[in-house]
Amino acid sequence: RKLSKRELTKRLIDGMVLYRMKDYSRAAIVLMDIVNRYPGTTEATEAAFFLGDAMFQQREFVVARANFEKVVNAGSGNQYYQLALQRLLELEMRRAAVLGKAKTADPVRMRQVAELLRKIEAIPVGRREASVDYVRGKYLFFRGRVADALKVFSGLGKSHPYHLQAVYFIGVCHIKAGRLNAAAATYKRLIDQVIFGY
């Protein structure tokens, strides 16, 4: 029988509790049931994100990707949209690291990634999750788009939660571009910030 709205919400909470306890296998069973039996509901979209992340944690990347894509396809109005976009970019970075950039640069895949980046850029800056731009910058860097990555990292100011990581990557971007003096100045600034707080 179909669950009532209240029962479905309770079932989702059960799955999320298992996920938070890092019992990813049992969480996946509960969440997969919701995704498969209640498509089109907000509970199914939420379950798809946590199912995707449970699979991501277990290195089941194909299943993870499929579920993150469900969340993205549900539209930008859902609360896990940005995090699903972020995870999809992280999956692309992992894929490129394993297979090599040449094997992951097929035109169809690159168009899909370009669409992911476009969706992230379409989110107003003030409404973006803090980690999303950081991961976007990392992706651009690892794909060899150093100038684009530098632009993203430079935009993560001192109040940004990933500012120190961004400054580190700014230095790496300068090194990659052969600007060693700029890299040295960046790392001096990073050390001063960490040690002296300015």
List keywords for this structure.
single chain, 198 residues, mainly alpha, 10 helices, 74% helix
> How would the global form be characterised?
elongated
- Please summarize the sheet with the most strands: none
By secondary-structure content and strand pairing, the structural class works out as mainly alpha
Measured distance between first and last alpha carbons = 61 Å
Proportion of helical residues: over 70%
Q: Provide the succession of SSEs.
A: HHHHHHHHHH
What value does the average pLDDT take?
89
Tally of alpha and pi helices: 10
| Backbone CA Rg | 19 Å
Percent of residues in beta strands: under 5%
Low-pLDDT residue intervals, each spanning 5 or more residues: none
The number of distinct β-strands equals 0
What does this structure look like?
It contains ten helices and no strands. The chain starts with a helix and ends with a helix. With 198 residues, the protein is an all-alpha fold. α2 runs antiparallel to α3. The mean pLDDT is 89.
